[in-house]
Specification:
Largest sheet: 6 strands, mixed, barrel
Distance between the termini: 40 Å
Strand order of the largest sheet: 3-4-9-6-8-7
Helix content: 40-55%
Number of strands: 22
Length: 817
């Protein structure tokens, strides 16, 4: 400890004598550590932090059907059976997330909520801030207790924070419910990152709409998330053993002919870190780790260059009997002081970086989604930053310390050649080239992802998409029957078409950016007669008449749907060009028919093909157009539809008129999610935009670090070669010769890094090739452009040191020697 304290004091004095070097090293390392701390804050929030307002969340587990090690939802009868028979849980709760139509003291709207078991709030230890929560007695018999607990945000937004809200009535999906309480402000349910505005008892499911009428009795409806609280002293292994036994009973009950494969028990706090989320977290951590590696390489290079100025000091200490291990300890102490200071700077930088991360995650998200991002700096984040700082100190400090203590005593004591160490350091050159290589890899990845996103955006947006308005209506949530819902769609579309400024209007069950191959299976007429004929997997969509006109998709053959295509009339279908070519080799559609086949192998009735529409957004996620069929909503009813309105000017100016038309048809019907087609496409491509933006920021940060590091290395090299440069100029070298010599040094290092980075990029991009759209993994324009950019950056980074070298006074340099 005596030696350590002495080394710390000496290290502080040494670093304070070189404030420029110290500040540059702390800045470079602080950026790398700050980026890692910010990303870890996100990982900590989604993987480790307990859900707010929930008591003893460490004892919660997720229970569900086993699928690749991830618990999937069960049916409500499965949950009920487990609740009756399991002994390892003190409580077992059910959660079924749902979108409600609500009307209360204002315009109707659609909100996110959950249908929960009666023990939901007591089991989680959550108390109401106003009134009471849902209790087990509210969840005994179907339809008996229409009560609801509302979220704190909804209470403030719709009821103005009225302390007497308990007892007020609101309509959910057209049914009256009594508000019994308000949840705490920081409570969103077990999934703390998704806002929930309301909770109702599971026994009220049958009154929520036709899609939930059988949820309490059907084992085919596997939509219930199950969460258990382990009894004290019970571990996950014991719970898993019991669930494996109980799964046999569920399998014997069956689920629509499909048996339950098994029951998986998993820690709840880590449930959302599984699968794709876990892979994404590791990928993001790997990218910021590369940035930290570049920072370490930069500072290691600075230390190696700085070691030239300390050659005589180290040689004297060695000559006086200091052991090499003792000197390495001293030099590592200085490195640790740098890394700890950089860790403190990184914590400050991470405060800004977490805001950037939050903005990236919320990019393209509708209101209410992912609003709870707790990126706080808790003990875990601070511990991670401290650990990273220590590891960083070893990474950038060990190699320079070992190399610096290998000094050749006689030349070093004579101080004969200041530049020998610089010229002979392969490690320094390797580090400088490696950071350029890593920067090139990140920049190429960023360019490929950005080009993919731009291609997707350009290829899938319709013409004049800013003048197309989208909104959602859900008569099924209001309890409309199929006939009543069909009449509502027809009346609503006709009334919207009559609004001044509307050029066309139609509806679809979903307005896609890309088609999904495999939505349906069809057999063109003739194929079904052959034994063993295989149905074709196609994209399928339910639409109304006028949809294609509103979207700007022209009919190539035949007609659009019309009033004659009603329920009870012969079934009709419209196909896209790709489907027509694949099924009938480009023949006319006159007399052509097809039939659907369900996943149990049963064929449906024949459908008459009445039209062929141009290939539009019927594309697989990253490929060519896929075969697609369109069926009329009047013959294939959907309880939720999205209205598409084509206008001649700004569509948002028509919001009030459209809302009036909805209210005239049904005052309790919410028309929600208003957005232009451009906003819709941006939202659906939000994930791609997030990836490309993140990698682009990471690449730019890596490039900035690499350029700063290259500048620092060349600057120190020039300072250590003052005598050599003075000799050259005394012997007749011109300033431009010296300038070119230093400039070539930087460009040569960058070219080596560019070559290595190009090879690595070619290997890495092969792995992600399937995720690219409209751009080759080896796009020569991108590779050439990034290489040119790096050369330019290296020239800029070397320019100032090169200019400094031309100002060396030979007389001063030789006199110094």
């Amino acid at each position: 400890m005596r030696f350590l304290l002495r080394d710390i004091r000496y290290g502080i004095r040494t670093l304070s004598k070189s404030p420029g070097f110290t500040a540059l090293a702390i800045l470079i390392l602080g950026v790398g550590i700050g980026a890692n701390t910010a990303v870890f804050s996100l990982v900590n929030s989604t993987m480790f932090l307990p859900a707010p307002a929930i008591q003893d969340s460490d004892s919660l587990v997720a229970v569900g059907e086993r699928h690749a090690g991830i618990p999937l939802p069960l049916s409500y009868p499965d949950y009920f059976d487990l609740r009756q028979r399991a002994t390892v849980f003190s409580d077992l709760i059910s959660v079924n997330d749902y979108t409600f139509s609500v009307s209360a003291d204002g315009e109707p709207e659609r909100i996110q909520g959950s249908i929960v078991s009666g023990n939901f709030f007591p089991a989680l230890g959550v108390r109401a801030v106003v009134g009471r929560t849902i209790l087990p007695e509210d969840d005994q018999r179907p339809g008996e207790h229409p009560v609801a607990v509302i979220g704190h945000g909804f209470w403030q937004r719709r009821f103005g924070g009225d302390p007497n809200v308990a007892g007020r009535t609101l309509k959910l999906n057209g049914q009256p419910f009594t508000v019994v309480g308000v949840a705490p402000e920081d409570f969103n349910g077990p999934d703390a990152q998704k806002r929930r505005d309301i909770w109702v008892p599971a026994m009220m499911s049958g009154r929520m709409g036709p899609d939930l009428k059988d949820v309490l009795t059907s084992r085919e409806s596997a939509s219930t998330s199950v969460i258990g609280r382990l009894r004290p002293g019970t571990g996950i292994e014991q719970a898993q053993a019991e669930m494996s036994v109980l799964a046999g009973g569920l399998a014997s009950a069956g689920r629509g002919g499909r048996l339950v494969e098994g029951i998986e028990v998993r820690e709840w706090n880590r449930l959302h870190s599984s699968g794709e989320g876990l892979i994404a977290a590791f990928a993001v951590m790997a990218v910021v780790a590369l940035i930290l590696a570049i920072a370490c390489a930069n500072v290691a290079n600075l230390l190696l260059a700085r070691a030239g100025a300390r050659r005589k000091e180290i040689a004297i200490r060695l000559a006086m009997g200091a052991g090499r291990a003792r000197l390495v300890q001293q030099l590592l102490t200085e490195s640790f002081l740098l890394s700890l200071a950089a860790g403190a700077a990184g914590l400050l930088l991470s405060l800004w970086a977490t805001d950037l991360i939050r903005a990236l995650i919320l990019m393209g998200q509708p209101d209410g989604d992912a609003l709870r991002l707790d990126l706080r700096m808790d003990v875990r984040v601070l511990g991670y930053t401290l650990a990273v700082s220590f590891i960083t100190g070893i990474l950038f400090g060990l190699a320079p310390a070992l190399q610096s203590t290998k000094a050749d005593l006689i030349p070093a004591l004579k101080d004969g050649d200041h530049s020998a160490g610089y010229r002979r350091s392969r490690l320094r050159s390797t580090l400088a080239a490696s950071q350029i290589a890593v920067s090139m890899v990140l920049l190429i990845l960023a360019a490929l992802f950005v080009k993919t996103t731009l291609n997707q955006r350009a290829g899938k947006a319709i013409a004049d998409d800013r003048n197309v308005l989208l909104l959602s209506v859900a008569p099924g949530d209001q309890g409309y029957s199929e006939a009543a819902g069909t009449r509502f769609y027809r009346s609503f579309i006709e009334s919207v078409r009559a609004i001044a400024g509307v050029e066309a209007a139609g509806a679809a069950d979903a307005v896609r950016v890309s088609g999904v191959s495999g939505d349906a299976r069809v057999l063109p007429e003739g194929d079904g007669a052959r034994a063993g004929a295989e149905a074709r997997r196609v994209s399928a969509q339910v639409v109304s008449s006028g949809y294609f006109k509103a979207m700007g998709f022209p009919m190539v053959q035949g007609r659009d749907f019309d009033e004659g295509d009603r329920s009870g009339a012969p079934g009709v279908v419209i196909v896209n060009e790709t489907m027509a070519r694949a099924s009938w080799a480009g023949e006319g559609i006159a007399g052509k028919r097809l039939r659907t086949r369900n996943f149990e192998g049963k064929n449906g009735p024949h459908l008459q093909v009445v039209g062929v529409v141009r290939d539009a957004n019927d594309r697989a996620a990253f490929g060519e157009p896929v075969p697609a069929i369109y069926v009329p909503v009047t013959q294939s009813y959907s309880p939720h539809m999205m209205l598409v309105v084509k206008t001649g000017s700004d569509p948002m100016a028509l919001l009030a008129a459209i809302r009036r038309e909805v209210s005239a048809l049904d005052p309790d019907m919410p028309a929600s999610d208003f957005r232009t087609m451009s906003e819709h496409v941006d939202r659906l491509l939000a994930t791609e935009r997030q990836i490309s933006t993140f990698v682009l920021i990471a690449g730019a940060l890596a490039l900035a670090l690499a350029s700063v590091g290259l500048y620092g290395v060349i600057s120190y090299a020039v300072s250590q070669r003052t005598h050599e440069i003075g000799v050259r100029m005394a012997m007749g070298a011109r300033p431009r010769d010296v300038f070119s010599m230093v400039l070539r040094e930087g460009v040569k290092l960058s070219l080596v890094g560019i070559g290595a980075g190009g090879v690595i990029s070619a290997l890495v991009t092969r792995v992600i090739e399937s995720e690219l759209y409209g751009v080759s993994a080896l796009d020569p324009v991108i590779y050439g452009g990034i290489a040119s950019l790096l050369v330019c950056v290296s020239v800029i980074a070397s320019y100032v040191p090169a200019r400094k070298a031309t100002r060396v006074d030979p007389m001063v340099a030789l006199r110094y020697e």
